[in-house]
Write a structure and sequence with these properties.
single chain; 165 residues; 7-stranded mixed sheet; 29% helix
Length: 165
């Protein structure tokens, strides 16, 4: 279960807006997080508190396939992104890096910037505590939840290999 304030961004936000190329000189999660969304709006991160939730329009994460984009979001303290839809490569990279992603289609219009949300990724229920709206989306599939529970694909694989040894 996640709880936080919604930070709404638009449609077709590409990975260069999420984390501009000039910040790709590090793999430090905190440093990437400190520059999250810098390509969209300088200083955007100053409004974010740990546990807040990003809400996006269509095709979030389009552009290059950089894994730094979901890492920057996680580094910003945002554990979940809700969007109308995600770019295919970003969607996979997000789960691989341990970022929870939920697609809600047109119901994204039921969430405004600053709304307080409860998100249950296991059931797919998003509750807007500000408006009282409840949104039902597909929950995170069980096999993907296993990856998320371990913190991403690499820790998941390492754990599976260790279990076999």
């Amino acid at each position: 279960m996640f709880h936080g304030k919604a930070h709404k961004v638009g449609a077709h936000i590409d990975t260069d807006a999420i984390i501009p190329a000039r910040f790709l000189v590090t793999t430090d999660v905190a440093e990437l997080g400190a520059n999250c969304m810098e390509g969209l709006e300088p200083g955007w991160i100053k409004r974010v508190q740990k546990g807040d939730i990003m809400v996006a329009g269509e095709n979030f994460g389009c552009g290059s396939s950089r894994e730094h984009a979901p890492v920057a979001i996680l580094g910003a303290g945002i554990p979940v992104v809700i969007a109308h839809s995600f770019a295919r490569i970003f969607y996979r990279n997000g789960f691989n890096m341990g970022l929870v992603l939920l697609e809600i289609g047109d119901d994204v219009s039921k969430i405004s910037d600053g709304d307080e949300l409860n998100v249950d990724a296991d059931t797919g229920v998003i509750e807007n505590l500000t408006t009282g709206a409840k949104i039902q989306c597909k929950p995170v599939p069980t096999f993907m939840k296993g990856i998320l529970d371990k913190g991403g694909l690499i820790p998941y694989v390492k754990d599976r290999l260790a279990a076999r040894a």
